C-alpha cells in the first residue's frame, strides 16, 4: 500500500505562484512514477504532469508547459508541483497519484491522494 497526502493549495491571484506537495508513505520502493492531476467543476479529471520516481523523467500537458515544474525528493519521499504564472483556468482540485508500472501518461494510477483546492482569481 501507498499513502499520499497533498498540501499547499490555496487562493491566489492570477500571475502568482504556488507549490503543491505530496507526502508519500508506505511501500515507496514499489513506485514507478508520481503524477499530478486536476479536476475543475463540471469537467473531467485532467492529467497535468508526471515524473518517474527513480529517473526523474518529466511529462506535462501542453497547457502547463513552461509554467509548472514537477519534481520529487526521494530522500523525503515527497513529490512537488511548482506552479508559476497561474491563470484562472488553472482553478481546480489538484490530486497527486502514484503508479506502480508504466506508462507514465495515463489515468489509471494505482493510488490517489485526497486532493487540494487551488483557486486563481482575476
Helix content: under 10%
Number of helices: 0
Strand content: over 45%
Distance between the termini: 40 Å
General shape: globular
Which residues sit in consecutive blocks of at least 5 with pLDDT less than 50? Answer: none
Q: From the helix content, strand content and strand pairing, which structural class follows?
A: mainly beta
How many E-type strands?
11
* Largest sheet report: 7 strands, mixed
Topology as H/E string?
EEEEEEEEEEE
Mean pLDDT: 96
Integer-rounded radius of gyration:
13 Å
Properties at a glance:
11 strands; 122 residues; seven-stranded mixed beta sheet; mainly beta; globular; four-stranded antiparallel beta sheet
Description:
0% of the residues lie in helices and 52% in strands. The chain has 122 residues and is mainly beta. Strands 2, 4, 5, 6, 9, 10 and 11 form a 7-stranded mixed β-sheet that branches. Strands 1-3-8-7 form a 4-stranded antiparallel β-sheet, with no helix packed on it. 34% of the residues are buried.
Provide a quick synopsis of the model.
The chain has 122 residues and is mainly β. The chain has strands at residues 2-7, 10-13, 18-26, 33-39, 46-52, 58-60, 68-73, 78-83, 92-99, 111-112, 116-121. It is globular and about 40 Å long.
Per-chain topology:
Elements: E1 2-7, E2 10-13, E3 18-26, E4 33-39, E5 46-52, E6 58-60, E7 68-73, E8 78-83, E9 92-99, E10 111-112, E11 116-121
Parallel strand pairs: 2-11
Antiparallel strand pairs: 1-3, 3-8, 4-5, 4-9, 5-6, 7-8, 9-10, 9-11
